[in-house]
Amino acid sequence: MLVVCMRFGTSNCKLLFSFRSEPLNASGCKTIEIARKHFSSDEMSILLDKNGRVVALGYEVEMKYETEKEHRLIKLSKNAMKIALGVLSGNPLTYQKTADVVLSCLQYMLEILEEQIKERVGFISFEKDVFLVLILPSHLQHIAREISSKKIGPKRYRFLIVSEIDAIVCLMDRLDETMMRLKTKPWINFSVGCRYLLLFCGGITNATILTMNPDGTHQTIVCKETRGGFYIYHRVLNVIRGIFGKEVIEEFEKEEKIHYLQWMQEVGSRKKRLSTEGYFQIPIASNFLEFHKRKMRREPSIYEQSNSIYKVELIGDRSFINGKFIIDECYQEILEYTENVLGEYETNNIVLYGGHGNCEYFRLLISTRFPNVRIVVPYNSDLAIAKGGTLYGHLHKPQV
Question: What is the pTM (predicted TM-score) of this model?
Fold first, then answer.
């Protein structure tokens, strides 16, 4: 039986599928990235056609929206759903409408899954041979009761809704030492009676304190979240606005949307390639310079204005700002947050997962900051939740 884990979040959506019961490495599982933002805000962009059907998710949405003006652009955030066009203006965005949009997104993801499976596997009965594991972010858990096989598509998928914490526990209890990106002390699995800090570092950072019970169940305490990758996104924008002027950048975003999104994509790619010293190049796009000159009717004095505050470097024919100070601001906040949680709950075990777990610079900082704490990080920590969900599905799939 094919087990598929579908993870729907506000900054990315992933599908991970496997026929094997232990899909922990590249040969055991395959990943389909439905929506991934190279440089993510705290919203998921969703494009609907005039019939309310989802036609795109994530980074590609705003690119398509520039040429498909009859479509509706929706921004799904942690706190609300916003409509970018006035099609639904004046109508309250009710709980039911949010649920309907999420259900449409799930249907869109399943359609992509079916196409990919047919290409890679060939014929398969989705109603009999596929077991679906669905993971929703915590702020969308309240709509779980709206999810049913009937509502997310004509095919009657057998499925299970799993929490992110259950997925991580399932994964970490089955990893051996060869599957760890970082392991400061030996790790076997979760031990009864011990406390663990499950530290998710992605767009936001949040901590969950987990205690294992003798019967195999666990108790959790969810801590208040702090800044993460979304903070870096907003900080970079503030720096660029400070150099060129807030109004100029806002006008550039509206009038030169494609160039603006391409710049964001490049910044995000550079952030993912941080050196071990945390060096982070923020490109100063030539489009910004030309747009500023056209709007302000003068050359922007970026070097004179910014050298006293930011370090501007010329590499070839391009200019960059060294944004290491932004990375350090974010990571130091995460480290202080982690130290406070460790002290409050008296634990010396950290399980780190999420996108920042892939960053060598961050792993160096956290292991140096807490030398007496066991810190474990799985390989491809950004996929840890999806891998755990796939494993969970294999353990709980229907017997055939």
Answer: 0.86
